[in-house]
Recover the amino acids of this structure.
């Protein structure tokens, strides 16, 4: 039953909560507002609403709108230079998981000397301790996928070394404040609503079968699984369904807490390897492609049968009695959300990559393999890729 839980982020959760931001204590006087390189935050009105809240709070702003999906090392380094040049003393992230991840690592790196990779792990990172403080961060999430608004990690890709790795993890990178307002999620297209929702789901399903699970992590994970199973198909079918959006957003934040008190397993490391080599692959889509083969591997090992039965029940299959009932429930949810036809080959992945992907996953994020419910060899990892390949 042992666990450690530290979650210092103040969370404003619910429809309309962005309008309360200006009542909160700001951690600085000039904010670097970090956005994606798309236009959704402007078109939806989210950016204007945020800037007005910061104006009412007496905060100056400078906008950095260069973050791509699967954010790159070069983008984070450019963001750090932008923060220093503009005299920003805190960061505000407005966007989905990629924006929040990039913003955290910008906050970590902005005041440090040297190269970003001096301070990260992975196969080629130098793992040096930070020499200077990090900048405070406020996270305003516009998607329901990563739970990044309540944890201290970011995921960054280095295309020169084909590494996509999680970095950060220090207490100072927890956002001081998070806004989870489902009104900001109403315009997310159905496809991405599904990808993001399954990302949130897999944070919790991985955590629930991991070796570091506890009654505390179980509580967050089962809440996330139940809410995704019940409400994600509704949010995909009708993006204006505010009730569904709110419940999926709640599941997302619970999955964030899952990673604070527990851990993901090797499924996330395996997907990171896929999108490290194929930048255009959405993270949630890659996880969906892997998922049935991945969880079947552990079911066939019979390492945690009762946990798979419990997850099947949480997904809505109340009569679940066998571990494979989880795969049945998962396949049904993917079909209900219109993502059951995803193929690795559609994103340029070829079957011959399976061994290289397995090697990359272990080299870059091997710690997640240590959390698996039973050890997985490199050959078994490659076999899961092959089994999932279409």
């Amino acid at each position: 039953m042992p666990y450690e839980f530290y979650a210092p982020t103040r969370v404003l959760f619910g429809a309309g909560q962005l309008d309360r931001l200006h009542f909160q204590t700001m951690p600085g006087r000039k904010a670097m507002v970090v956005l994606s390189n798309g236009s959704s935050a402007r078109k939806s009105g989210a950016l204007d609403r945020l800037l007005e809240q910061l104006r009412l709070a007496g905060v100056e702003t400078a906008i950095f709108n260069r973050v791509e999906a699967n954010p790159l090392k070069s983008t984070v380094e450019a963001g750090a230079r932008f923060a220093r040049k503009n005299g920003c003393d805190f960061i505000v992230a407005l966007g989905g998981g990629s924006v929040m991840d990039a913003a955290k690592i910008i906050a970590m790196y902005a005041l440090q000397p040297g190269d970003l990779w001096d301070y990260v792990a992975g196969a080629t990172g130098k793992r040096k301790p930070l020499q200077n403080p990090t900048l405070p961060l406020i996270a305003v999430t516009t998607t329901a996928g990563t739970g990044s608004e309540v944890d201290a990690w970011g995921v960054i890709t280095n295309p020169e070394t084909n590494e996509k790795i999680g970095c950060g993890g220090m207490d100072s990178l927890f956002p001081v404040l998070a806004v989870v307002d489902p009104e900001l999620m109403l315009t997310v297209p159905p496809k991405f609503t599904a990808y993001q929702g399954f990302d949130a789901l897999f944070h919790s399903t991985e955590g629930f079968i991991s070796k570091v699970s506890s009654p505390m992590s179980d509580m967050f994970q089962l809440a996330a699984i139940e809410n995704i199973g019940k409400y994600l198909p509704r949010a995909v079918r009708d993006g204006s369904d505010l009730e569904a959006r709110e419940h999926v957003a709640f599941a997302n934040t619970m999955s964030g807490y899952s990673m604070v008190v527990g851990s993901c397993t090797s499924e996330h490391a395996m997907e990171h390897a896929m999108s490290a080599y194929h930048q255009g692959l959405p993270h949630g889509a890659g996880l969906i492609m892997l998922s049935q083969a991945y969880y079947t591997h552990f079911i066939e090992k019979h390492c945690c049968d009762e946990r798979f039965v419990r997850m099947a029940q949480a997904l809505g299959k109340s009569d679940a009695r066998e571990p494979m009932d989880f795969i049945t429930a998962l396949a049904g949810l993917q079909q209900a959300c219109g993502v059951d036809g995803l193929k690795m080959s559609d994103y340029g992945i070829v079957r011959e990559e399976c061994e290289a992907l397995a090697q990359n996953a272990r080299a870059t994020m091997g710690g997640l393999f240590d959390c698996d419910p039973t050890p997985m060899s490199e050959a078994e990892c490659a076999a899961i890729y092959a089994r999932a390949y279409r």
